[in-house]
Prior knowledge:
With about 280 residues, chain A is mainly α. Chain A has helices at about 5-35, 40, 55-65, 70-100, 105-115, 125-135, 140-165, 170-175, 180-210, 215, 225-230, 240-260, 265-270. Chain A has two domains: about 5-60, no CATH class; about 65-230, MetI-like (MetI-like fold, Orthogonal Bundle), CATH 1.10.3720. In chain A, α1 packs across α12 and α5 (about 105-115) packs antiparallel against α7.
Amino acid sequence: MARASSPRRMILTTLAAWGVALLIFFPVLWMILTSFKTEASAVANPPELLSASWTLENYAEVWARSDYPRFFWNSVVISIGSTLLGLAVAIPAAWAMAFVPGKRTKDLLMWMLSTKMMPAVAVMIPIYLLFQRLGLFDTKTGLILALMLMNLPIITWMLYTYFKEIPGEILEAARMDGAGLRSEILYVLTPMALPGIASTLLLNVILAWNEAFWTITLTTTKAAPLSAFIASFSAPQGLFYAKLSAASTMAIAPILILGWFSQKQLVRGLTFGAVK
Amino acid sequence: MSTHSTRLAARLMVAPSVILLFVWMIVPLAMTLYYSFRFYRLLTPDRTRWTSFDNYTWFLNSPDFWLAIFNTLALVGGVLVITVVLGTLIALLIDQPVKGQGVLRILVIAPFFVMPPVAASIWENLFMHPQNGLFAAFARGFGAQPILFLENYPMLSVIGIVSWEWLPFATLILLTALQSLSSEQLEAAEMDGAGAVSRFRHIILPHLTRAITVVILIQTIFLLGIFGEIFTTTQGGPGSASTTLPYMIFKQAIAAKDIGRAAAGGIIAVILANIVAYFLMRGIGKNLDA
């Protein structure tokens, strides 16, 4: 609903908007800046900015002290694996709910979402025991499964809202031309739904990457992703601010960069049917 | 387009996700229910036995229980109010014709990409720390005593941190909804002499209803289970001041190693989540023609 306005007003709103945006971003910026300071400079009082002594030492030390590449690789495999598996299960379900809705479709969707309201802590012990018993504990397969199931309701709902926007007439036309269910999905629906699938994929990779309860509870070393990496840098007592910031930056950098580069697709997809 | 065979095919396509979710929900729930009636402590694992409602009685009579319920609801409610109100204001601001809107969006969305343990530790150490935090430095700069955020205002601090994490999500959904509002309608209202406030009340706000519903629904789902932020910052303290229901369960399971009591707490948490879900669906479900 952007509207034309006077140049004076534009300058004022621009200033206000930038002020607010920088305020929201500031904690991340400050963390990144701190990660390049020496430890003494990081806790200096008053805080140093221009006068700070800069260094790359923190990154070198964090890199040397822990097996970052392994944590990183685990994060990649777990977040992408759980998202792809989730899409494979959710796409048919969302398709069916959007194009062959029954009386109970809405209730079904709401039930799916409600399964997510169960606090993870409440079922932590059973899941922990089950994972131990089934040999899924501290394995990437186990985490892929857990995170897939955790995000499945969100994936299904998001896809459903996209699929519903695809006009049904197109499918009917395809059917008249003799397209079967399979080719209907493969050649008609999927290309039209691709933008929606892409943003669902992005959102879920982000959610899975940032998940920090199951990933920490269900792993020890082998399958531990970056959330566990950062948890292992325990409470610093003042002296390790810079190193903590460096480790934090390393944990969020991959997803921050991915998110920034793909934010157009992500934002376009972040509607959950909120826009008619 | 609902011949018998397409209906059957549709059912088969929905089945895997429904079955998977059902199993993922019912198996742990049944196990939790079972443990909740057992005396089961990890320190004396061989002395496990049926204990009727003792675990529930303990949980409900614990002095922390009502505080934990209150804190849980305060966290959900507080974060919802803050993110929806601020999110609407920021979305209205960014939606104006401003320079560099693309970069603005990148800055505003950033907290969404920060994983909870990192977000919590940034705020705890770099900002709220009474010695080395930036807030303390500011306070000293003005000659004031640093505020002991996590010690004196633990719940408010946690609400603040979680709000920062969820603000981008609310803002972006509201912004997308705002951008689909036609400017003609607003201009027409303006010509008819409608002031900014009444334009907001009668045109913009009704248009945002669906978006606000979505924000409330999705955020509530995530907020009811908030755990990591409290674990990293206050550990539920001081005392029990910032103990929420999930954190109380965690303390029973991990610190007290009492599986029975933790399970009873888990069942209570599930009941609470269902009550919240019920009111949520009744209150706003109709806005959603999902």
